[in-house]
Protein backbone atom coordinates (compact mmCIF):
# COMPACT_ATOMS: atom_id res chain seq x y z
CA UNK A 1 0.00 0.00 0.00
CA UNK A 2 1.37 3.45 -0.88
CA UNK A 3 -0.02 6.64 0.72
CA UNK A 4 0.88 10.33 0.39
CA UNK A 5 0.56 12.47 3.52
CA UNK A 6 0.92 16.27 3.89
CA UNK A 7 3.15 17.97 6.42
CA UNK A 8 0.22 18.34 8.77
CA UNK A 9 -0.56 14.62 8.54
CA UNK A 10 3.00 13.77 9.36
CA UNK A 11 2.91 15.81 12.54
CA UNK A 12 -0.10 13.86 13.83
CA UNK A 13 0.93 10.40 12.66
CA UNK A 14 4.19 8.73 13.70
CA UNK A 15 5.49 6.49 10.95
CA UNK A 16 8.03 3.75 11.28
CA UNK A 17 11.27 5.08 9.67
CA UNK A 18 12.00 1.65 8.25
CA UNK A 19 8.85 1.96 6.15
CA UNK A 20 9.87 5.31 4.51
CA UNK A 21 11.29 5.23 1.00
CA UNK A 22 12.89 7.81 -1.30
CA UNK A 23 10.51 9.79 -3.49
CA UNK A 24 11.45 11.95 -6.50
CA UNK A 25 9.48 13.43 -9.37
CA UNK A 26 12.05 14.94 -11.79
CA UNK A 27 9.48 15.35 -14.54
CA UNK A 28 5.78 14.59 -14.54
CA UNK A 29 5.86 11.31 -12.70
CA UNK A 30 6.72 9.97 -9.23
CA UNK A 31 9.28 7.22 -8.65
CA UNK A 32 9.59 5.24 -5.43
CA UNK A 33 12.69 3.29 -4.31
CA UNK A 34 13.51 1.46 -1.08
CA UNK A 35 17.18 2.45 -0.82
CA UNK A 36 16.48 5.40 1.52
CA UNK A 37 14.40 6.00 4.63
CA UNK A 38 13.71 9.73 4.02
CA UNK A 39 11.66 11.92 1.70
CA UNK A 40 13.48 14.13 -0.78
CA UNK A 41 12.44 16.63 -3.43
CA UNK A 42 15.01 18.29 -5.72
CA UNK A 43 15.44 22.11 -5.70
CA UNK A 44 14.27 22.24 -9.30
CA UNK A 45 11.01 20.66 -8.22
CA UNK A 46 10.10 23.32 -5.65
CA UNK A 47 6.52 24.53 -5.93
CA UNK A 48 6.05 28.15 -6.92
CA UNK A 49 2.78 29.97 -6.26
CA UNK A 50 1.13 33.34 -5.66
CA UNK A 51 -0.40 34.38 -2.33
CA UNK A 52 -2.37 37.49 -1.34
CA UNK A 53 -0.53 39.85 0.99
CA UNK A 54 -2.18 41.22 4.14
CA UNK A 55 -1.64 44.61 5.79
CA UNK A 56 -1.17 47.97 4.09
CA UNK A 57 -0.82 46.39 0.69
CA UNK A 58 -3.71 44.04 1.17
CA UNK A 59 -4.82 42.42 -2.00
CA UNK A 60 -1.37 42.57 -3.63
CA UNK A 61 0.13 39.38 -4.82
CA UNK A 62 3.52 38.15 -3.62
CA UNK A 63 5.57 35.32 -5.08
CA UNK A 64 6.60 32.62 -2.57
CA UNK A 65 8.49 29.34 -2.72
CA UNK A 66 7.92 26.37 -0.44
CA UNK A 67 8.91 22.72 -0.33
CA UNK A 68 6.10 20.23 0.16
CA UNK A 69 6.60 17.45 2.70
CA UNK A 70 5.69 14.03 1.39
CA UNK A 71 5.84 10.70 3.17
CA UNK A 72 5.43 7.35 1.43
CA UNK A 73 4.61 4.26 3.47
CA UNK A 74 5.23 0.86 1.96
CA UNK A 75 3.87 -2.12 3.82
CA UNK A 76 4.86 -5.71 3.16
CA UNK A 77 2.55 -8.68 2.81
CA UNK A 78 2.78 -9.42 6.51
CA UNK A 79 1.33 -6.05 7.65
CA UNK A 80 2.77 -2.64 8.52
CA UNK A 81 4.24 -3.58 11.88
CA UNK A 82 6.46 -6.43 10.80
CA UNK A 83 9.20 -4.30 9.22
CA UNK A 84 9.28 -6.68 6.25
CA UNK A 85 8.82 -5.38 2.71
CA UNK A 86 6.85 -7.23 0.08
CA UNK A 87 10.05 -8.30 -1.71
CA UNK A 88 11.51 -9.73 1.51
CA UNK A 89 8.26 -11.52 2.32
CA UNK A 90 8.16 -13.05 -1.14
CA UNK A 91 11.79 -14.13 -0.82
CA UNK A 92 11.10 -15.87 2.51
CA UNK A 93 7.98 -17.52 1.17
CA UNK A 94 9.85 -18.81 -1.89
CA UNK A 95 12.90 -19.88 0.13
CA UNK A 96 10.96 -22.15 2.45
CA UNK A 97 9.34 -24.23 -0.33
CA UNK A 98 12.71 -24.51 -2.10
CA UNK A 99 14.30 -25.84 1.09
CA UNK A 100 11.47 -28.29 1.58
CA UNK A 101 11.76 -29.42 -2.05
CA UNK A 102 15.52 -30.00 -1.68
CA UNK A 103 14.98 -31.99 1.52
CA UNK A 104 12.31 -34.10 -0.19
CA UNK A 105 14.55 -34.77 -3.22
CA UNK A 106 17.42 -35.75 -0.91
CA UNK A 107 15.20 -38.12 1.05
CA UNK A 108 13.90 -39.66 -2.17
CA UNK A 109 17.45 -40.25 -3.43
CA UNK A 110 18.49 -41.82 -0.12
CA UNK A 111 15.45 -44.08 -0.18
CA UNK A 112 16.18 -45.09 -3.78
CA UNK A 113 19.84 -45.89 -3.04
CA UNK A 114 18.82 -47.83 0.07
CA UNK A 115 16.37 -49.93 -1.94
CA UNK A 116 19.00 -50.63 -4.62
CA UNK A 117 21.54 -51.60 -1.97
CA UNK A 118 19.08 -53.99 -0.36
CA UNK A 119 18.27 -55.54 -3.75
CA UNK A 120 21.99 -55.94 -4.54
CA UNK A 121 22.65 -57.50 -1.13
CA UNK A 122 19.78 -59.93 -1.68
CA UNK A 123 21.15 -60.86 -5.11
CA UNK A 124 24.61 -61.51 -3.64
CA UNK A 125 23.07 -63.73 -0.97
CA UNK A 126 21.17 -65.68 -3.63
CA UNK A 127 24.30 -66.18 -5.73
CA UNK A 128 26.29 -67.21 -2.66
CA UNK A 129 23.63 -69.73 -1.70
CA UNK A 130 23.54 -71.06 -5.26
CA UNK A 131 27.33 -71.37 -5.38
CA UNK A 132 27.35 -73.13 -2.02
CA UNK A 133 24.63 -75.50 -3.15
CA UNK A 134 26.36 -76.34 -6.42
CA UNK A 135 29.98 -75.94 -5.43
CA UNK A 136 32.84 -77.79 -7.16
CA UNK A 137 32.61 -81.55 -7.26
CA UNK A 138 35.75 -83.43 -6.27
CA UNK A 139 36.41 -87.13 -6.81
CA UNK A 140 39.67 -88.98 -6.12
CA UNK A 141 41.02 -92.52 -6.02
CA UNK A 142 43.91 -94.97 -6.43
CA UNK A 143 44.83 -97.20 -9.33
CA UNK A 144 47.56 -99.83 -9.79
CA UNK A 145 49.11 -101.50 -12.82
CA UNK A 146 48.24 -104.80 -11.17
CA UNK A 147 44.62 -104.20 -12.25
CA UNK A 148 45.56 -104.78 -15.91
CA UNK A 149 48.69 -106.98 -15.75
CA UNK A 150 50.69 -109.11 -13.32
CA UNK A 151 53.97 -107.94 -11.77
CA UNK A 152 55.50 -111.08 -13.30
CA UNK A 153 55.22 -109.39 -16.67
CA UNK A 154 56.93 -106.02 -16.20
CA UNK A 155 56.35 -103.28 -18.78
CA UNK A 156 57.38 -99.69 -19.34
CA UNK A 157 54.04 -98.89 -21.00
CA UNK A 158 50.86 -99.65 -19.05
CA UNK A 159 47.40 -98.20 -19.72
CA UNK A 160 44.18 -98.44 -17.78
CA UNK A 161 40.69 -96.90 -17.75
CA UNK A 162 39.34 -95.19 -14.64
CA UNK A 163 35.59 -94.49 -14.49
CA UNK A 164 34.10 -91.92 -12.16
CA UNK A 165 31.50 -92.99 -9.63
CA UNK A 166 29.12 -90.41 -11.17
CA UNK A 167 29.27 -88.53 -14.43
CA UNK A 168 30.39 -84.90 -14.29
CA UNK A 169 28.24 -82.19 -15.93
CA UNK A 170 31.29 -81.04 -17.88
CA UNK A 171 34.79 -82.37 -18.50
CA UNK A 172 36.68 -82.12 -15.18
CA UNK A 173 40.31 -81.31 -14.45
CA UNK A 174 42.33 -84.43 -13.58
CA UNK A 175 45.75 -84.70 -11.91
CA UNK A 176 47.75 -87.84 -11.22
CA UNK A 177 50.76 -88.79 -9.09
CA UNK A 178 52.86 -91.81 -8.11
CA UNK A 179 51.64 -93.44 -4.91
CA UNK A 180 53.87 -96.56 -5.05
CA UNK A 181 56.41 -98.25 -7.36
CA UNK A 182 58.29 -101.53 -7.73
CA UNK A 183 61.22 -101.35 -10.16
CA UNK A 184 64.35 -103.37 -10.90
CA UNK A 185 67.19 -102.21 -8.62
CA UNK A 186 69.78 -102.72 -11.34
CA UNK A 187 68.46 -99.67 -13.31
CA UNK A 188 67.60 -96.06 -12.57
CA UNK A 189 64.12 -95.06 -11.35
CA UNK A 190 62.38 -93.59 -14.38
CA UNK A 191 58.56 -93.44 -14.23
CA UNK A 192 56.03 -90.96 -15.61
CA UNK A 193 52.29 -91.05 -14.87
CA UNK A 194 49.67 -88.84 -16.61
CA UNK A 195 45.97 -88.83 -17.68
CA UNK A 196 44.63 -88.83 -21.24
CA UNK A 197 41.25 -89.14 -23.00
CA UNK A 198 39.45 -87.28 -20.20
CA UNK A 199 35.65 -87.03 -20.51
CA UNK A 200 32.62 -86.67 -18.25
CA UNK A 201 32.63 -90.39 -17.42
CA UNK A 202 36.31 -91.00 -16.73
CA UNK A 203 39.85 -90.97 -18.18
CA UNK A 204 42.76 -93.16 -19.21
CA UNK A 205 45.74 -93.43 -16.86
CA UNK A 206 49.24 -93.95 -18.29
CA UNK A 207 52.37 -95.33 -16.62
CA UNK A 208 55.57 -95.07 -18.67
CA UNK A 209 59.25 -95.88 -18.08
CA UNK A 210 62.28 -95.51 -20.39
CA UNK A 211 65.84 -96.59 -20.99
CA UNK A 212 66.77 -99.68 -18.96
CA UNK A 213 64.15 -99.08 -16.22
CA UNK A 214 62.02 -102.11 -15.44
CA UNK A 215 58.58 -101.47 -13.89
CA UNK A 216 57.01 -104.40 -12.08
CA UNK A 217 54.14 -102.46 -10.54
CA UNK A 218 53.17 -98.83 -10.10
CA UNK A 219 50.45 -97.25 -8.01
CA UNK A 220 48.75 -94.03 -9.18
CA UNK A 221 46.71 -91.53 -7.14
CA UNK A 222 44.31 -89.24 -8.99
CA UNK A 223 41.96 -86.29 -8.34
CA UNK A 224 39.17 -85.02 -10.60
CA UNK A 225 37.60 -81.57 -10.00
CA UNK A 226 34.58 -80.28 -11.90
CA UNK A 227 30.80 -79.84 -11.78
From TrEMBL:
Domain of life the protein comes from: Eukaryota
Positions with biased composition (Low complexity): 73-85
InterPro entries: H-type_lectin_dom_sf, H-type_lectin_domain
Ranges of Polar residues composition bias in the record: 7-19
Entry keyword annotation includes Transcription: no
Residue stretches in coiled coil: 103-130
UniProt KW keywords: Coiled coil
Region ranges (Disordered): 1-24, 73-95
Limits of the H-type lectin domain: 161-225
Recorded GO MF terms: carbohydrate binding
Record-level GO BP terms: cell adhesion
KW Transferase (keyword) present: no
Protein name as catalogued: H-type lectin domain-containing protein
Protein source organism: Daldinia eschscholtzii
Native organism taxonomy: Eukaryota, Fungi, Dikarya, Ascomycota, Pezizomycotina
